[in-house]
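note to self: dont lose this again. the chain is below, predicted strucutre after it. 247 aa total, dont forget to put it in the shared folder this time
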Amino acid sequence: MAAPALIALAHGSRDPRSAATINALVAEVRAQRPDLRIEPAFLELSKPGFHTVVDRLVRAGHEEVVVVPLLLSDAYHAKVDVPAAIAEATARHEGLRIRAAGILGLETAFLQILDERLRTALSRARVRELDALVLAAAGSSDALANQAVARLARVWGTRHRLPVTAAFASTAPPATGEAVRAFRAEGRRHIAVASLFLAPGFLADRSAELALEAGAVAVSDPLGAHPEVARTILARYAVGAVELVPV
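---
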């Protein structure tokens, strides 16, 4: 029995850097599991679209598909857009079995990536000391999703024995610039910002811009096509594949 195909489903962006990053991440997943059929897809704004990829897999003879949503928060896109897309694909292809795996989420293992990205940013800026950190994320109208970012920020701060504030690029306060200014009001001058975004794009750029304007000494790049993110995708896929096995 052939293993289910894997669709790595991202939201999509008008910024071409976003799709390029997702494609690089999928290339890393393929390198780790060359035995699997693995395809990138996007909900909107980027190509290929989800239904285009599903159609391609069906034509190639695949009857089972595991979709791994490349989303860091369990909010609207995860709860509404992804299930709707899968329901439509299932209705269009009789006999096709599709399982949505868990989203990427906010793994504590991603703190290692944040550290790597931030060390690179600090080296570029020639900064050698820090007295505060900001963890910048997209933000959501879903309070629970924002609370998950805040929890990860606390864990990160404990590891570094530094005060950390979670900040958001949209919807929820504080904005990244506000978080930096709040630390500066306390007399802290060496404040770095880690970008808890999967890929570059408008929100990540705006977050970085506001942070630097407010006096941050460095802002890291997004998580990107890191092997640890690829391993997490495969871990989510493995659970979804098991759930497709008849009982």
